[in-house]
Amino acid sequence: MPTFAGTILILDPDIGALEPIAARLAEDDEYRVFLCASRADAARCLAAAEVDLVLVTEDATGEGQHFLRALRLSHPAVLRVLLVDGPGSTDRQELVREAAIYQYLTRPLDGEQVALLVKRALETRELARRHRILSRELKLSDDAPMFARDRLTEGFVKEARSFEKLVYASPQMAELCALARQAARTELPILIEGETGTGKELLARAIHYHSARGNSPLLIQNCGGLSDELLRSELFGHLRGAFTGAVSDRLGLFRAADGGTVFLDEISEVSPAFQVSLLRLLQEGEVKPIGADRTMICDVRIIAASNRPLAELVRQGAFRQDLYFRLKGFELRVPPLRERRDEVAALAEYFVRKHGAAMGHRVLGITQDAVQRLEAHDYPGNVRELENEIRRMVALAHNGDYLSTRHMSATFAALPVGQPAAGQSNGFALLGGSLKDEVERLEAKLVGEALRRHRWNQSKVAATLGLSRVGLANKIKRYGLDRGLGQEATA
Ligand SMILES: Nc1ncnc2c1ncn2[C@@H]1O[C@H](COP(=O)(O)OP(=O)(O)OP(=O)(O)O)[C@@H](O)[C@H]1O
Ligand SMILES: [Mg+2]
To answer: Which of 18, 169, 385, 446 pairs as cysteine with 346 (C-beta 3.0–4.6 A)?
Structure first.
């Protein structure tokens, strides 16, 4: 069964007159064409098929004109072309405006001219569709510093960068994003592995928008929890009547994304039979809709993701090795959040702003005390879990609040936090010493925390605290501050 570039409906009471045009459009099975003599016929076609464009003749009975006006309301997405005889009139101008006519053509018609108009009209519609998809994807500018530093976070939170909507501040993520940018420039398939909630989908989106295919569609399919048949028809499409319930043709995601990218989430979940079809697409660029007797070429880039390690599944014989090798043109592993705790604060700050703005809560920032607890958690749900906690905190806050432990859920509020000097609480408890002793103890704590925040970058700490480098070095010596206390051993 052929695959058409579009479905065209022609309405003309004098069917014979337009037969040559219909024949031209149907040549080489380019378009599926319905020739209708009456409005009732045309309505039946519209109900049964996905019509892309109508060609309607202006006629004395007003039948065609009426049809076009009604169509604008019932099927606004269908392109409307008017075929006219003779010179224009005010009636026609009104019709063109009211029925939002795309174009009109004067008879006698030239088959080639009609075919070209149809082609361009469908292209324009496709561009408009892609434009809508893209506009929906609100993009952050690439690699821009995320926020203006404010008083609260000055010198306290690592500067966040972004790769599209993916925000990061850790060296591991910076390295990963650099590799992802390189991968984006190629046409190779990409396999993204990582625990749930680590940002695999965000990364896939960023890659797509950074690739040469960025102006074409990105379509996403979760492969988990779907029957083989359903997944197959979603992705490869089917022809009408291919199975019970297949009441009309379905294009399938791969062909709908032609020229673009398909993101296949939870790729580990697909059946062995499906793996074979996927391999065929990756090797030959071919898809075969269910019920079709011939394959079709389809140009898509595949990005697949899995939160189960595919190499392990290959070893167990649960995933085809050849497919695994094909999928991992580039292999990107997104580390779990507990392996990059140093960016928890930056992510938290980003989410405070994101959700504060979304909820209309003017939150001023987040206290150091709360950040320390956020950093102490192990995050089995990774960044998604952090975001959920922040969203909840923002929801509980009032305008003008700093988010603090009192806004935290019980799990987070109860977390023990590491301190530069052992045995201190987060609040500053007076120990009954002289004022000088107490002030020095507070000073030691503040300097220690600033050093920890800046991973012992002494120039930054000195600048933040308003000290000279020598002044800072003296304090470090005086208070016996030690890099080993509460530090992670990263540069
Ligand atoms: N680096 C990040 N910057 C900003 N937001 C992030 C980041 N990582 C994750 N998120 C947030 O966490 C949520 C989960 O991210 P995403 O859906 O990309 O994860 P995933 O790895 O695909 O998860 P799953 O395996 O459960 O499908 C997203 O809605 C996003 O808001
Ligand atoms: Mg996902």
So the answer is: 169
Q: Do domains 6-135 and 170-335 have the same CATH topology?
A: yes
CATH of domain 339-413: 1.10.8.60
pLDDT of residue 138: 47
Sorted by sequence, the CB contacts under 8 Å of residue 129 that are 6+ apart come out as: none
- Cα→Cα distances 393→19, 117, 372, 373, 401, Å: 67, 56, 15, 13, 11
- Closest atom, ligand 1, to C-alpha of 194: 21
Contacts of 476 (CB under 8 A, 6+ apart): 447, 451, 458
Q: How far is the CA of 213 from the centre of ligand 2 (A)?
A: 21
Burial class (CB in 10 A: 0-12, 13-18, 19+), 433: exposed
pLDDT over 90, % of the chain: 47
* Residue with CA nearest ligand 1 atom 25: 196
pLDDT (0 to 100) of residue 136 = 52
Here the tokens at position 312 are 């392990």
Mark out the alpha helices in 225-300 (DSSP H runs). Answer: 228-236, 253-256, 272-284
Residue 362: what pLDDT?
A: 85
DSSP H helices, 83-170, are 90-98, 111-136
- Give the pLDDT of residue 484: 60
Q: Say yes or no: CB of residue 220 within 6 Å of ligand 1.
A: no
CATH topology of domain 170-335: Rossmann fold (3.40.50)
**Ligand 1 within 6 A of CB of 17:** no
Check whether domain 435-478 has CATH 1.10.10, yes or no: yes
203 C-alpha to ligand 1 centroid (Å): 8
pLDDT (0 to 100) of residue 437: 72
- State if residue 168 touches ligand 1 by the CB under 6 angstroms criterion: yes
Regarding the beta carbon of 167 and ligand 1, being less than 6 Å apart is answered yes
Q: Which of 236-245, 321-330, 415-424 has the highest mean pLDDT?
A: 321-330
What mean pLDDT do residues 397-420 have? 83
CA of 465 to the centre of ligand 2 (A): 41
Q: At what angle do helices 469-478 and 435-453 cross, to 10 degrees?
A: 120
CA-proximal residue: ligand 1, atom 26 (nearest): 196
Q: Please give the Cα distance from 370 to 404 (Å, whole number).
A: 5
> Where exactly are the structural domains of the chain?
6-135, 170-335, 339-413, 435-478
Q: Is the CB of 384 under 6 A from ligand 1?
A: yes
**CB of 381 shorter than 6 A to ligand 1:** no
- Locate 67 and state its tokens: 């049809």
CA distance 331 to 183: 9
The pLDDT tens digits of the residues spanning 47-78 come to 888 899 999 998 888 889 999 999 988 888 89
Architecture of the structural domain at 6-135: 3-Layer(aba) Sandwich (3.40)
